[in-house]
Amino acid sequence: MIGHVWERVSECSQLTDKVVATCDTEIADYITLIGGRAVMTGSHHERASDRCAEALEILEAEAGCQYDIVVLVQGDEPMIQAAMIEEALSPMRDDPDVQVTNLVAVIESTEEFEDRNCIKVVCDLAGNALYFSREPIPTRSKVKDIPMGKQVCVIPFRRDFLLKYTRLAPTPLEIAESVDMMRVLEHGYKVRMVPTAHQSQSVDTPADLAKLETMIVRGVSEFRK
Hints:
Elements lengths: L1 H8 L10 E3 L2 H9 L4 E3 L7 H16 L5 E5 L8 H13 L6 E6 L3 H4 L6 E4 L5 E5 L15 E4 L1 E5 H9 L4 H6 L3 H6 L5 E4 L10 H19 L1
Parallel strand pairs: 1-2, 4-9
Antiparallel strand pairs: 3-8, 4-7, 5-6, 5-7
Helix pairs in contact: 3-6
């Protein structure tokens, strides 16, 4: 799955370098075998964003340069497409004040809405995240027509903000929800959410994998038609 994600990310022409950050030698060896580049990080990280920040510092020390933007794509997003990365980067090109963005997709089923592995997000009127939760939010008891949104883990950071992020203390709601972006919100910063119509299916359980396989087979079948 990591190899599949790496190959899809590699299709994005807007990225100058594509690197897998891992603490697992088996993953690093596999990525090297298929022609990719891996960076070994510490095994102590609880959050993907912290691992990404360590990888950034390693890469910059090796290359003697600085990157402008770092795009975090989690390894459990095998349906990632280059166009999704381009979507996530768009607000940063238009607004220098945007420090971090995150894709959001529409939840289309009650089953997914109630799944704790699906991270729900609600936004303000400007499109910034108000809260991320593994619980079903927003409430459906009174208002039925508010869209249900889910986090898609394609997360561009401006370089300096990523390094600031990793030096911020972990926060209570970040820990409770196990969501990186809650650290940003609890420290008073904004996360610009970017809508995407592209299908996504993160893989956290065997049931998710079976669902992904069905989606892929259906996609291939529709393509052949």
